[in-house]
């Protein structure tokens, strides 16, 4: 997901992107990304599937 996003627009993630440079995805993708970032920082995290 990050590789694809950075291929669209290489600026930092905190910089706003125009609509044509944004990555369309589903909310579970954001959940997985957040959990991975939390775990990388040593914070426990998990996702719950409905």
Kindly summarize this structure in a few lines.
This protein is mainly α and 50 residues long. Helix content is 42%, strand content 0%.
Oligomer: single chain
Compressed to H and E, one letter per element, the order equals HH
Separation, N- and C-terminal Cα atoms:
22 Å
Strand content: under 5%
Provide the helix percentage. 40-55%
Structural class determined from secondary elements: mainly alpha
Tell me the radius of gyration.
Answer: 13 Å
Form type: globular
Based on the model shown, name its key terms.
mainly alpha; 50 residues; 2 helices
Notes on the protein architecture:
The protein has 50 residues and is mainly alpha-helical. The protein has helices spanning 2-8, 27-40. The protein is globular and about 30 Å long. The two termini are 22 Å apart.
How are the SSEs ordered, and which strands pair?
Blueprint: H1 2-8, H2 27-40
């Amino acid at each position: 997901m990050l590789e694809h996003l950075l291929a669209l627009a290489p600026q930092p993630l905190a910089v706003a992107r125009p609509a044509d440079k944004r990555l369309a995805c589903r909310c579970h993708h954001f959940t997985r990304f957040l959990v991975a970032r939390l775990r990388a920082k040593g914070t426990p995290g998990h996702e719950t599937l409905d």
